[in-house]
Amino acid sequence: MLDQIMTTFGTLLSPHGPAVQAATSFTPSDYCVRFFLQLAIILMTCRIVGWLGRKLLGQPQVVGEMIAGVVLGPSLFGLLAPDLQSAVFPEETSNILYVGAQLGVGLYMFIVGLSLRLDHVQAKARAAMAVSAAGIAAPFLLAALITPGLLAVDGLFSEGISQGSATLFLGACIALTAFPMLARIINERGLAHSSLGTLSLTAGAFDDAASWCVLAIVLATFGAGPGVAVVAIGGALLYGAFMLIVGRRLLAPLGRMVEAEGEMSMTVLAITLALFSCSAFLMDAIGIHAIFGGFLLGACMPRGLFVAELKRKVEPLVVVLLLPMFFTYSGLNTRMDMVNSFTLLATALGILLVSILAKFGACWAAARLAGEDNRTALGIGALMNARGLMELIIINIGLQKGIIGPTLFAMLVLMAIVTTMMAGPLFELVYGRRARGRRVGRFR
Domain 105-433: which topology? Predict the structure, then answer.
């Protein structure tokens, strides 16, 4: 009976089904039918898996949504019901899901930027640079050691890629920090304005920016031309300097308008979202990524009531509706069944261990050398080791550009999920109890 239902459902959704037998390609109505069905399935799956993750594993919602994305892809849904999965998520609709995914992750990084205190960044810049430098140097060093072995395994990297390009790409993947995940843990525990919170956010931003610059170099050496790296890095530096020096003053009137009216009007909201779109477009156009345009604009926006109103109006839609589309898009490209031998499994575990050693260990050591106490240094290392959203973004680019194959993509997705799941419990173990003790002490 179930087989009959699934077969009928798949036939109705098929581009060659009764409704569109004469069509040779998807029509606009075909895209709409699938998109709304996809969105309903994505939202419900992310809510359910996220709830289970919170109740059973103590993980934040975002981790459950990462897992939900893999569940909806070929690794589980496609394994159990391949015909139905391909009917619900046909390849022809992937571009629509991709656009929604990029909008979601870009707006989320914009919201994260709104929470960044630039005055704290300046106060902690020296220590943050030390942690960031260690969090970049160690991953690239270890990537250089393991890349020759990975190149010897068929299908991990694309044919013809140089050892240098492969090393740079793998190093960028290991060096990344799950900036949104890091921000969420810090905000949930009330540490956004603490030394640890500011240092971690600042170092994470530096690390991710450096990783994207390295990615631009890899794309240049992989056939896009050296101009790509020059435009990407030079353009990002110029735009960042402009926003920090001039942009903050130009944006200040928006804050005064909100303060004067006591709320954010629809006009101010429209202007803000238009500015976000322009900033995201610029970063995407020069070859970095839209998310950095959103984050940088958020960091330069007026503070106070403006931020509170903007978060109230935008954040729920972004977190509940748009981000799950990104996780699902990544999950549709994840084939865990390709890690199907002892050699490949050992390789995946090796990448995971190297990634933890390179990020957690190096950031802990750098924080200690910068003068932080051991518990704070361990907390910083735990947070910096998470990769989450940022990892999924960069490996999706690597897969789309043909730098890595589906097998290495699956391994890196596994690494992203495990290191992100580690972050909360490990941070709670090494630092969270201490932070709660301090808050209790202040109230006594």
Answer: Na+/H+ antiporter like fold (1.20.1530)
Each domain of the chain, given as residue ranges in start order, spans: 105-433
Residue with tokens 């803000």: 272
Sign of the C-alpha dihedral computed for residues 332, 385, 291 and 210 taken in this order: negative
Instruction: Report the alpha-carbon distance of residue 388 to residue 413 in Å, rounded.
Output: 9
Q: For residue 177, what are the contacts with CB-CB under 8 A and spacing of at least 6?
A: 135, 203, 204, 207, 208, 359, 383, 384, 385, 386, 387, 390
pLDDT digits (tens), the chain, 444 positions: 445 444 545 555 554 444 333 334 667 777 778 888 899 999 999 899 888 888 887 777 777 888 888 888 888 888 888 888 888 888 878 888 888 888 988 898 888 788 766 665 555 667 777 888 888 889 999 999 999 999 988 888 888 788 888 898 898 888 888 776 676 677 666 676 676 777 777 787 777 777 777 777 777 666 556 667 777 778 888 988 899 889 999 999 999 999 999 899 999 999 999 999 999 999 888 877 787 788 889 989 998 899 999 999 998 888 888 888 888 888 887 878 777 788 888 999 999 999 999 889 888 888 888 777 888 888 888 888 888 777 877 888 788 778 888 889 989 988 988 888 888 788 888 886 655 445 433 323
